[in-house]
Amino acid sequence: MTQPANATQAPLDFFWFIPTHGDGTYLGSETQQRPPEFAYFKEIAQAVDRLGFPGVLLPTGQSCEDSWITATGLAAHTERLKFLVALRPGIVSPVFAARQTAALDRLSNGRLLLNVVVGGNPTELAGDGVFLPHDQRYEQAAEFLKIWQGLVTGETVDFEGRHYRVQGGRLDLLPVQTPPPLYFGGSSDAGQDLAAEQVDMYLTWGEPVAQVAEKIERARKKAALKGRTLRFGIRLHFIVRETEDEAWAAADRLISRVTDAQIEIAQQRFLKEMDSVGQRRMAELHGGRRDRLLVGPNLWAGVGLVRGGAGTALVGSPESIAARIREYQDVGIDTVIGSGYPHLEEAYRVAELLFPQLGLGGRKNTLRQEIANEFAVGFHGAKRLQASS
């Protein structure tokens, strides 16, 4: 049996995901679908807070509830949970974003994390009023972050660049964290240049270990040239069950209602409508083919047949998935941002089955061992049985 992670490995942060675009049991089907309702988001957030996940990612985009407003609501219903919400250069001004940052970080008592999202779908960006080509969006983001960083660390900002001009910008109320950490994922050279210069955590989607290692090494070298160091995280789905057979059966069931027409439409959108290098790398792992979904040991690309963004899942027993995560740790990953369908149930499976294998402190069993019930026969029950025999 695989042993839990030992003290020689780097500490691992394991975040979860709030499905603000909806949730369900089957991809590509409205059967057993859960709409994007705040009450359900709260169920997930409170569960993962109790289970020992340190934070959650809230997605951004046209199909999602706003991450800032949702996180504000959830912060009032949780105790320790951190919220990774989107900074959107080009969508909002850097000064307004800095005020939002200070307000939510103060309201949550320092539980805010920021995910810099430049965007990789020109069609959606056009709907938001952004018409810059790919590399210029990263140029704009670099200016945005310089202004934002200055404001949230208490500076008075005067800035004049190609995309922004600010005179005498300041915050009278500063965030608890100065500044809150910046997370960012971008596979292109322009994206890695931005990461090397300005962010704290560089994220990748769940590619095979060798590809992740190569991407991390490139980003690390770019950061070193600027006298900086980066931390690294990975975004993955999880299908963890007590046995391998159970897990793979669950994976097959998840996409059992996805049609070939749905796959074709999704893949055309990913490859032709979007200019994201990361999305192209995701799509090329399987090429839209059902017979090419196993892209690495326990690494399954079925989710990416129809879902944009993170499209791979680790599938298997707790022991095998833990082994795969340790392989990612070996190449530099120290943070996992996980998800699974449905997100409430899969959070429990991950915490109860996988966390012990990773040496993570999941939900504590507060059951008093001296009390007999259907889950544990305690001392009282044992003594009564002995006395009656």
Automatic annotation (TrEMBL):
GO terms for biological process: alkanesulfonate catabolic process. Keywords: Flavoprotein, FMN, Monooxygenase, Oxidoreductase. Residues 13-334 form the Luciferase-like domain. InterPro entries: Alkanesulphonate_mOase_FMN-dep (IPR019911), Luciferase-like_dom (IPR011251), Luciferase-like_sf (IPR036661), SsuD_RutA_monooxygenase (IPR050172). GO terms for molecular function: alkanesulfonate monooxygenase activity. Pfam families: Bac_luciferase (PF00296). Gene3D superfamilies: Luciferase-like domain (3.20.20.30). Its EC number is 1.14.14.5. Catalyzes the desulfonation of aliphatic sulfonates. Belongs to the SsuD family. This is Alkanesulfonate monooxygenase. The lineage of its organism: Bacteria, Pseudomonadati, Pseudomonadota, Alphaproteobacteria, Hyphomicrobiales.
